[in-house]
Structure formats: C-alpha cells, structure tokens
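Translate structure to sequence.
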C-alpha cells in the first residue's frame, strides 16, 4: 500500500505543550472522523469479549451464581466511576492516547511517561494473545491447517482495517461490536424462555440458585477471586478516552458514550451471568472447562450450552463465529489504542521521533507498524521454548491494565484539584464526573486491591511458585523502573496545582 507522508505545518497541526520540558512542539494532526455511534460501539467492543463468552462460566463455578453477580456488579460500579473521571478530562481536553498527556500535565512528566508506555505494553501483549486465540478458534473448523498461518492472516486483516483510515477502523469496530451485542441480547431472551420452560421442554426457574453451596460458593474468598477476573474482563472500556482526539464532536460524543457504560455493563454482563446461573448449575464440570486456549472450549462456553438447551443444534459453530469476531474486534481495538498511545509519546519526545509520521489518511503509520511488529514478536514467542516467555507476558498484561486504570483515577483527582485551585469554575467543564471525589478515590482503592490481591492468591496457592508471582508483576516492575528512570534522568518533580497546564487543544 502506498502512503504519502505529510510534512509538519503550523496551519493544520496542533501544538502540545509538555510541562517539564517547557517546549512547544508542532505535531501532525489526526483527523476527527469518529462519530457518536462509533464511540458508543468502540466502548462496547472494549468490554465484551472472551471474558464474557468463555470466562463467565468459570467465574460462576468458582463463586456460585450469586457470588459472580456480586463480583461483576462491584467491578462494574468501579468502572462506571473510572469512566466518568476519564470522560470529564477527555471532554475538556480531547487528545488521542490521553492517559500519558494527563499524567504529565497534572501529576509528573515521569508519571505520564511510565503510564503511556505501560498502556502501550498492555495492548501490544493483548494483540499477541488474540492472535494466539484466533488460531485456536479457526482450528475448530480446520484442525489440519498450521495455527500460525491463521494468526498471520488475522494480523494482516487487523492491520489493513487500521491502515485504511480512522473512519475505516470506526466502521469495522461498529459492526464487530454489533454482532456481539445481538448475540448477547438473543442469549438473554432465549435463556429466560428456557428457564421459564417455554423452550427446551423443562422449567428451571431459580432452582440452580439454591442447590448445594449456591448462590454463594467459597464465601467471601470466592467473590474476591472472581472480582479479579471481572476486572480483567472489563479492561478496554477506557477506549473512550483514547478515541477522544479523533472524535468529530468530543463535547457531545464522549459524555454520551460515558453515560451509557453503566447500562451496558448491567445488560451485557449482569443479565448474562444471571441467565447462565438460571440455566446451568455452578457445579456443572463444563463451566470449568471453557478456556480460549482449548480448541474444544467453544463447546463448553455457557452461551453454547444455553443455546443447545433451547434446541439450537448448530450452536457451537455459531458461537465459534461470534468469538472469532470478538477476537478480531479486540485485536482491531488493540492496534488502534497502542498506535495512538505510541504516536502521542513520540510527539511528547518520549518515544523515537520517526513514530510521529502520519499518512494523508490520518494514520500514524510508523507507530502502527511498530506496534504490530512487537505484537508479532510476542506471538512468535508462543511457538518456542514451551511458551515460557509468552506466558509471562500474558500474565503481566492483566495486572498492568489495572496500573493504567489507577493512573486514570489519580489523574482525575489531581485534575479537579488543580482546576479549582486555579480559580476555574465547574460550570466551565463540558461534562462533570458525578460523586467526586468519592468516584476516583474508590477507583484508586479498588485498583490497588486488585493489583495486590492477585499476589495474595498466587502466594496462597499450593505449591507456591515464585515464577508465577514474578510473571504477574513484570508490568508493575516495568512501570516503576520507567517512572524513576525518567524522573532521575530528566529531574522531574510533582507538578504544583497552580502550574498544571489546562491549555485546551483546538477541537475542530
């Protein structure tokens, strides 16, 4: 594909001022072509994935139907507060790859540097995971074709969708997400009809909520263990902040997307888990067997089991196609988020300068290719050495995602304090986060609990393996090294509230 690289010019570029270097730096602009419907579906695409279609069954098996509902409901409330915090900042200061920019302006340039590279790392490893999972999914239909061939094909498709234009990415993600939404809605409706005895020939009612240890299995410990899984499932909902810099009307579109997040979580996760609990007892062995790394996992997906109970014979093939779409969506979003984050880091002199280049279609092409190259190398590590390196990267990305969430909440806490300290009025904010400061403080506390809670469950495992503990915290260790390394080299300090930079980007 032939790309034309645009020269930097003052007339069509934004100027980003970084506190700490005190330099004005022209940068190539990204076009604002994402509409409200794109942002809404991108946010949905970030939250609906294999965590719902496969891992939800395992969650019910661990904590019972009631425990799973409590865990997912609790993390959903936290995510709602987190997204309102991000919405307030992204609406006032819309910029692609916003986390590191906010961290540099309102906390410390070193914090923004570490936060940006941490988030890029999370998504590049996620892309590798999706490439690996895609080969497993396709093997369901074509078991004799080498797995890496399908992973390569999926990577080419994802790169192609992101190379067309930002509008091309938005449209593809819109339809990917629409397939997932339709699947969940149909499952909930059919599941309720099956539980009521209208379909399937048997009435289940609430009987599965009262058998054995149900509705709560393993007590509080079971709820906490699923709380960790639920948090990993919801990662990606922060995509609304990444898309802010390319939204056609951020002051209108971002608040609309943020306000819908809570109801989406309620519908897609809470209702789905509730229906699964109605249909399948928590002690059904099949709930423990659903795993995206198992070529037979689709047959054990609680969604597949529910459709089969309704008499839908081709359910495994249907769900396999849906989950393949989910993987395409996750990889598509991953390339978009990581490339934009890397592009902003380059514009703030926190990444190699050549990554700033933008094509005539508004694509940060070198940042995109660099991201895909790193993801490809990570994926290839799964083919050698008994997957040791690959498994370490995979384990660390989940906890590193909570570091990014913590950064969002902490950035907002500092943002609002600085905003008021400088005499600005809350009425000047296009969108205000509700329940401040309770919201960001709760989100920070929850993220810390999840980050260190993961260590507790690893330590209490028998036999204890220190390599598992280290693998899960590679991302956290990397964040700390990046933070203090940048701080020492550039001698940065905590930005005083009165010096926090609120200069707004030119929103076209």
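Result:
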């Amino acid at each position: 594909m032939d790309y034309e690289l645009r020269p930097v010019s003052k007339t069509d570029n934004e100027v980003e001022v970084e506190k700490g270097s005190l330099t004005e730096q022209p940068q190539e602009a990204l076009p604002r072509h994402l509409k409200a419907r794109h942002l809404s579906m991108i946010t949905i695409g970030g939250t609906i994935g294999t965590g719902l279609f496969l891992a939800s069954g395992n969650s019910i098996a661990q904590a019972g139907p009631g425990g799973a509902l409590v865990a997912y409901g609790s993390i959903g409330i936290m995510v709602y507060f987190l997204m309102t915090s991000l919405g307030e900042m992204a609406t006032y200061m819309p910029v692609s790859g916003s986390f590191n920019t906010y961290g540099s302006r309102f906390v410390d340039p070193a914090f923004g540097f570490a936060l940006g590279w941490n988030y890029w790392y999370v998504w590049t490893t996620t892309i590798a995971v999706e490439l690996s999972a895609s080969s497993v999914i396709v093997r369901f239909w074509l078991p004799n074709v080498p797995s890496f061939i399908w992973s390569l094909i999926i990577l080419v498709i994802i790169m192609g969708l992101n190379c067309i234009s930002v509008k091309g990415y938005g449209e593809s993600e819109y339809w990917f997400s629409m397939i997932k939404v339709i699947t969940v809605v149909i499952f909930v409706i059919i599941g309720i009809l099956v539980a009521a005895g209208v379909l399937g020939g048997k009435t289940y009612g609430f009987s599965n909520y009262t058998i054995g240890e149900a509705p709560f299995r393993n007590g509080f410990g079971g709820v906490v263990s699923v709380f960790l899984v639920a948090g990993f499932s919801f990662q990606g909902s922060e995509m609304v902040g990444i898309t802010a810099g390319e939204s056609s009307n951020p002051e209108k579109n971002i608040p609309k997307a943020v306000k819908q997040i809570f109801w989406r979580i309620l519908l897609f996760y809470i209702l789905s888990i509730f229906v699964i609990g109605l249909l399948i007892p928590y002690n059904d062995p099949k709930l423990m067997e659903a795993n995206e790394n198992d070529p037979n996992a689709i047959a054990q997906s609680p969604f597949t089991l529910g459709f089969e109970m309704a008499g839908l014979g081709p359910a495994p093939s249907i769900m396999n196609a849906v989950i393949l779409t989910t993987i395409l969506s996750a990889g598509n979003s991953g390339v978009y988020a990581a490339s934009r984050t890397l592009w902003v880091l380059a514009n703030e002199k926190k990444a190699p300068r050549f990554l700033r280049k933008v094509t005539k279609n508004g694509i940060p092409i070198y940042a995109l290719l660099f991201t895909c190259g790193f993801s490809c190398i990570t994926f290839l590590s799964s083919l050698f050495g008994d997957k040791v390196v690959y498994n370490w990267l995979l384990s660390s990305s989940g906890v590193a995602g909570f570091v990014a969430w913590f950064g969002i909440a902490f950035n907002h806490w500092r943002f609002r304090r600085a905003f008021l300290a400088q005499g600005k009025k809350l009425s000047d904010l296009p969108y205000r986060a509700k329940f401040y400061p309770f919201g960001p403080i709760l989100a920070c506390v929850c993220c810390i609990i999840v980050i260190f809670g993961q260590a507790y469950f690893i330590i209490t495992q028998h036999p204890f393996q220190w390599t598992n503990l280290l693998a899960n915290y590679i991302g956290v260790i990397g964040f700390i090294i990046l933070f203090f390394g940048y701080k020492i080299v550039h001698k940065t300090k905590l930005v005083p509230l009165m010096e926090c930079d609120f200069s707004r980007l030119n929103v076209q």
